[in-house]
Structure formats: C-alpha cells, structure tokens
Specification:
With 203 residues, this protein is of the alpha/beta class. The chain has five helices and nine strands, in the order H-E-E-E-E-E-E-H-E-H-H-H-E-E. The strands form three sheets. It has a five-stranded mixed sheet with strand order 3-4-5-6-7, with no helix packed on it. Helix 2 packs antiparallel against helix 3, helix 3 packs across helix 5 and helix 4 packs across helix 5.
C-alpha cells in the first residue's frame, strides 16, 4: 500500500539493494509503482547482512502481503498484518476477512517470540496479541450477524450505523469497508446473502 511500499525504490536507489516482494494487484489504494525485481514465494528464505528471514505469505489486509520471520530469535516482521495499538482495515475486494483470519492462525502456529509491526512498538507477547485480534474480529462478526437478524433488508451503508454505533461517525467511511469484509465472510460461510444490494441472515 502507498503508506509503505513507495519507500522501497528510494531505499534501493540509495543503498543498491534488490527490491523483493510480490507485485501489487490493481486497485485504487494499491501502489502501482511497486515493481519487485524478484517475486518471493511463501516459505522461501532470504539472507542479507548475516541475517536470514523466512517469507510468510499473509493475505488478508492485502492479497500480496508478506511477513518475515527471523527464525534465529523468533522475531516476526508483520508490516500491516498486525500493528500495535489498533486493528487493521480489511478492504475488499483485495482485502479478505476469511484470508486474514486464516493468516493469523498460520502465524499463531509459528515459533514467534516477538512481533515488529509496521506501526507501533515491539509486541513482546505475540500469541496473546494474535488471540486478541481473532477474538475481536469474531466478536464483531457476531455483532454483524445479530444486526442482520434484527435489521434485515439493509444495505451495507445502512448497517454501518447499526454495527458501528460505538464508533465515531467520522470513522464510518472506513468502517463500512471492514463491515463489507465481515458480510462477505458471512456470505462465504453460507450464513448470509445479498439480494439487490441488501443483506439477509440465513440462520
């Protein structure tokens, strides 16, 4: 995304580094200037400056998002997948709540001793942090399902005011994207459907 990857080219020009990663898909919020010289594969190990990192593909916040695990001490560099002090926005269609939760489960199973996020301070209790994120997302999903049951036949925008009543209205423009991610996951799970842009719970 454009709050991170544009720096890659600047750093490469200044220090002669090779740009590695996964190309950004098309989308208004993507950084189309990010062009890695080599695409990285999940599980691949890269070494530089005496440090070795294992690539962990973690779609969810972004389909091309990668985390990097320094296995020598269990330090996980998470970029925007896990940040300190807040939760990340899941913005469909590139963002996927189902993929995000799957990626968190994958990281939960790794030998991670600390997290170095793209925003905020080092997280020294990684498993606890991951569990909190998962719990928060699932509680929000339950709230979405309850709102659908009590308020059928609403659009995504109309549901935002119900589900995010505890959130400042100035943030609803962003919240509506996360709500859509939850609704699409409920749809994938066979728990909800959308007809004529209006949502209905199937339970």
């Amino acid at each position: 995304h454009s709050d991170h990857s544009p720096a890659a080219m600047v750093l490469a020009e200044r220090c002669g580094a090779t740009v590695l990663g996964r190309s950004a898909p098309e989308g208004w919020h993507q950084d189309a200037t990010f062009k890695p010289e080599r695409e990285l594969a999940d599980g691949e190990c890269i070494a530089a400056g005496g440090v070795e990192l294992r690539v962990v593909h973690t779609p969810g916040h972004a389909s091309n998002h990668l985390c990097y695990l320094r296995e020598s001490d269990g330090l996980l560099f998470t970029g925007d997948h896990i940040i300190n002090g807040s939760t990340v926005v899941i913005d469909p269609p590139d963002g996927s709540m189902a993929a995000y939760l799957d990626s968190l489960a994958q990281l939960r199973s790794e030998a991670v001793h600390a997290i170095a996020p793209g925003h905020g301070e080092i997280i020294d209790k990684p498993q606890k942090a991951i569990d909190w994120i998962v719990q928060h997302r699932l509680e929000r999903e339950d709230k979405v399902a309850a709102a659908l049951q009590a308020n059928p036949d609403l659009t995504t925008a109309e549901l935002t005011a119900v589900v995010y009543a505890d959130v400042d209205k100035g943030l609803h423009r962003v919240a509506v994207r996360s709500l859509l991610a939850h609704l699409l996951k409920l749809q994938e799970d066979g728990r909800a459907e959308c007809r004529d842009e209006r949502w209905h719970l199937l339970e």
